[in-house]
Amino acid sequence: MDTIKQKQISELVKRNFSVVLQDEGTNIYGAKPLVTVTNVKVTPDLGQAKIYLSVYNTENKQEVLLEMEEEKNRLKQALGYRLRKLVRRIPDIDFYLDDTLDEMFRIDQLFGRLRAENQMGSEEE
């Protein structure tokens, strides 16, 4: 269970890192991929932030994450510039792929196919 301070720092990192991606993202991974911050988890000591990202408009999502890993110092520096007056210590950042929406679309397609093949059962059951 996250403390109030963890939740506050997570939200600060999420909002400010989104702006960093808007500013620096096209220089790192190009203009085509759309990268959004879906969630941020901060450790209890506030020293580590796990940033969960959704990547769209590209087939190779891992490549975008690898490009961001290569520029991690630049991204952390830009984040630190935005957070410098709000927190004492800028947390280290790690990137993780959030594929929740991809799974949701895949499951929705499976249900659609089952409905089309009449294998869902009747509504009365």
Low-confidence stretches: none
Radius of gyration: 19 Å
User: How far apart, in Å, are the first and last alpha carbons?
Assistant: 39 Å
Name the average pLDDT.
90
Instruction: From the 3D structure, determine the CATH topology.
Output: GMP Synthetase, Chain A, domain 3
Q: What quaternary form is this?
A: single chain
Number of helices: 4
CATH architecture: 2-Layer Sandwich
- H-E string: HEEHHEH
The best one-word shape is flat
List keywords for this structure.
single chain, 125 residues, alpha+beta, GMP Synthetase, Chain A, domain 3, three-stranded mixed sheet, 3 strands, 52% helix, 19% strand
Report on this structure:
The protein is 52% helix and 19% strand. The protein is α+β, with helices and mostly antiparallel strands and 125 residues long. The protein has one domain: 2-Layer Sandwich (GMP Synthetase, Chain A, domain 3), CATH 3.30.300.20. The termini are far apart. The model has no long low-confidence stretch (mean pLDDT 90).
Topology of this structure?
Layout (H helix, E strand, L loop, with lengths): L3 H26 L4 E9 L5 E9 L4 H10 L1 H12 L8 E6 L2 H17 L9
Parallel strand pairs: 2-3
Antiparallel strand pairs: 1-2
Helix pairs in contact: 1-3
In a nutshell, what does this entry contain?
This protein is about 50% helix and about 20% strand. By secondary structure, it is α+β, with helices and mostly antiparallel strands.
